[in-house]
Structure formats: structure tokens, C-alpha cells
Amino acid sequence: MGNPWLALEIGADPRRRAGQLRRAHEAFVTGGPIPGPVRPVVADSWRRSAGALVSPDVLAPVDLADAELEEYRRAHPLAAVMPVLRDLLGAVADDGEHVLAVCDAEGRLLWVEGHCGVLRKAETMNFVPGASWDEAHAGTNAPGVATAVDHAVQIFAAEHYSSLVQRWTCAAAPIHDPRTGILLGAVDITGGDHLASPQSLALVRATARAAEAHLAGLLPPQSARANPGAGRTEGRRAFLRALGRDEALLDAGRCSLRLGRRHSEIVVLLAGRGDLSAREGLTGDRLSLELYGERTVNPVTLRAELSRLRHLLGPELLDSRPYRLRMPVEADYLDVARALDRAAVAEAVRAYRGPLLPESDAPGVARLRDRLEAQLRAALLAQREAGPLDAWTRTPWGEDDLQAWEALLAALPDSSPRRALAAVRVAELRHEYGLPAPGVPVRQDPPRATWLQRRRF
Fold first, then answer.
1. Is 342 exposed, middle or buried (0-12, 13-18, 19+ CB in 10 A)?
2. What's the superkingdom here (predicted)?
């Protein structure tokens, strides 16, 4: 396919493809591999959804309603572009076949508008304002995928992870602050299978660009709404998303800031493990060692990176001498570590979205990444519960983990449909690693190729 973000290539039969996708979806959610007809962007989203333990018949939860929802919408930057979105997509939303939806950067729906009849149908799947349609709560869908990967995308029929949504097709495009590049949310149109066309994807993409152009003329420079570092830091917190991502997202207030790779490494190192030493900061020499190792690097290089980062975040967030983050920063990898500290292994697996900054070779980041994965695997193998092991082996980083598959095979009841697949996978991996046939225990970790190593290869 020429464009991987389009649901159907030119000339494809929608009905035939929908049938193929239904069979592929059923095979995956019952423990099988993902077959060829599934696009890579959808396959990746299915794996993320399964890794978050999303049910195949999940109903998106409603988090905001009534006065709380109204207050949040009024304060959100996208409220300013709703007239533009309605002007460009209003006719589509009023035609009795579609709805217009706008979500925030976390995939939470803020506005859902259209013909009353279509809205009533959308309500049956909780496609309503205030509902969380990110992948971790609703599985694969266009607003959730668009905000997760920061790209315009179509999701067609049974490409949706939840079976309750599979009679719909949707197209969504992210909207950014035009000055800072912060992800503000996404605009979406949802309707029937006819939306699986190049025109619908081009329409939402053009609408998103028009919204950004409108914002460029409205938002004042250094707006506190668009600059996570602006204003006072007392009582404020930020959240860093760095698992399974090469470029971290820093959520501060109601905006998300995508960091470059080096800036992502710096913020991860300054956040550390959330302990006192991280809050006390790092000297320039120590930060250089954590970033570059023993390589000879001109100190000016690091100072330049930190100067650009301070300009991006604002002086209220980044201190120097020593370098530290002034605002308390939580992080997804810290959530995993805390869950492991409480022996909440299932919670840790749900929170683990992949290796920490997987492409980073900064020694400090690599140490944090390896320690977190090792602790998570050790907890999984020690607890040996089928649910967390099943979730782990469905992910790209756990699908070749022989010890996890063997532990899963031992934990599954004989009646489980997943047991036969686990037995086959154990035999395949033992053969791949040059180990004896099943029945002979593995006495030490096999020399498995990790997901990160396979990705780099």
C-alpha cells in the first residue's frame, strides 16, 4: 500500500477487507498472531491495546460531565477553533451519516456534534463528550491512534479493537499549537465505511491545518496555555511519557510538548527515579557522563542543548547549577516502578508501554531502561500469574520471551484456548535458541533477542 495511514488501497473491496479484518481481529484477541491484511499502524495499536489489557468488547469510560466538562472545554485551547471546525466540517456532520468529534491530547472527547439520529447511535458506544477514547481505555480508534502516534490516520471497520465500534469508520488528524508544536488534540469524523477513502483523510488533515492557522492569529506569544513553563510552578505537576517512545511527551497543564530525542534523554535523567537525588539535580559533569558516557564532548555542546531546552520549557521549570526540574514531574516509567514496589504486577504490566526511550544509547537512560525491564520480568516470573504473563507475551517486547511463555504455559488451565498456542510458541522458541525440546527445564535465561534489538536490526 502506498500510504500506510489510509485504510484501503485504490480498488480494494471494502466488504471483503472488512471480512478479512474481522477474522484477523478474532484470531488476535483469542491469542493468535496478527495476519497480513492488518496494516502495521493498526497492528501496533492492537498490541498496545492488548498490553494495556483492554477488553475486546470495551466500552469507553466517561470521565467528565456536566459543569466539570463545561469548565474544561471553556479553558481548552481548542475551544477557540470550534467555529472553524464547524464551518469546515459542519455540512459533513449534519448530513445524517457522520459526526464531528474533537478530543484533547489525551484522547478525551470534548465535542461530539452532528445529526441527532447519528448522535443517538454514537451514544450507544459512549462516543460522547467527556469519554476517554485513548487506546488504553477504548482500544484502537482514529482519535486514540492519531493522538498516540501524532499523525492523521483512518481506522476502518474491524480495525477497531473494540467489537462494539466495528460498524463505524473514522478519520482523525492531530492539531498542534502553531508556535510550540505542542499537541493540543485531534479532529475526527466518524461514520460509515464510505469514509475509508483518501478524501476523508485529506479533509480532516486540511481541517487540522486550518485550525492551526487560526490559532496562529489568536494565541498571544508565550501564552501560558501553550507554554508549559509559563507562570508559577507551585502546586503544579507535569507528567512525562517516555515508555515505548523515542521522543517523550511532557504533559503540563492541558497541553503536551513533544521533546526531541536529546531533550527527552535530559528530562528523563533529571526526573530520575523520582527520588530525592533527582530533585536535588545533577551537575554539568554528571549529566554529561549520563548522556555521553566516556566520549569526549565539548561542554559547550551540553550547555547549548540545555539552553534550547530551557527556552522550550521556560526558566520556571528548568534550573541550573545544578541542573534540575523545579516542577514535580511524574512519569509513566515511575508508575511501573511504583507498582512493582507494591508487588502489583498486573498493574505494572498495564502501565508498561515498552522500553524507556528505546533508541537512546545514553548510558544513564540505558541503565534505567534495563533495570526497569529486568525488575518487571523478574516480578512476572516470580508471581507466575496467567493474566499478566498473557498480557506480556502479547507485546512486541515479550513475544520472544521464552521463560515468560513457559511460565504462561504452566499457569494456564487445560481448558484455556491460549494453552495450545503457548505450547507451540514454547517449542518454536526452544528450537530457535538451540535448546532441548519441551520438557527439559531452562536453567538460565536463554540468549533471546529482545524487541529493542530486533527493532534496531
1. exposed
2. Bacteria
Residues 371 and 421 in one domain: no
Q: Can you name the residues that pair with 132 across neighbouring β-strands? A: 108
Q: With H, G, I as helix, E, B as strand and everything else as coil, classify residue 190.
A: strand
Q: Number of H helices and number of E strands within the chain?
A: 19, 11
- DSSP labels, 163-186: GGGTT-EEEEEEEE-TTT--EEEE
Residue with cell 530520575: 272
Instruction: Quick: pLDDT tens for 91-113.
Output: 776 666 789 999 998 899 999 99
Whether residue 79 is contained in a domain is answered as yes
Sign of CA dihedral 73, 130, 172, 263: positive
Helical (H) or strand (E) element with 325:
strand 324-325
E strands, 79-210, where? 99-104, 109-114, 153-156, 169-176, 183-191
Long-range contacts of residues 67-73, Cβ cutoff 8 Å, at least 24 apart: 69/110, 69/129, 69/130, 72/110, 72/254, 73/110, 73/111, 73/129
Q: Are residues 158 and 37 in the same domain?
A: yes
CB atoms within 10 A of CB 233: 17
What one-character DSSP code corresponds to residue 396? T
The amino acid that residue 295 corresponds to is R
What is the total count of domains within the chain?
A: 3
The whole-angstrom separation of Cα 299 and Cα 43 is 43
For residue 1, is it within any domain?
no
Is the residue at 8 inside a domain? no
Q: Given a cut of 90, is residue 447 above it in pLDDT? A: no
pLDDT of 183-214, one tens digit each? 899 999 998 888 888 889 999 999 999 998 88
Nearest to 170 by CA among 126, 140, 213, 129: 140
pLDDT band, very low/low/confident/very high, at 253 (cuts 50, 70, 90): low
For 54, residues 6+ apart whose C-beta sits below 8 A from its C-beta are: 135, 136, 137, 138, 139, 161, 162
C-alpha distance from residue 310 to each of 75, 133, 306, 357, 381 (Å)? 26, 33, 6, 21, 42
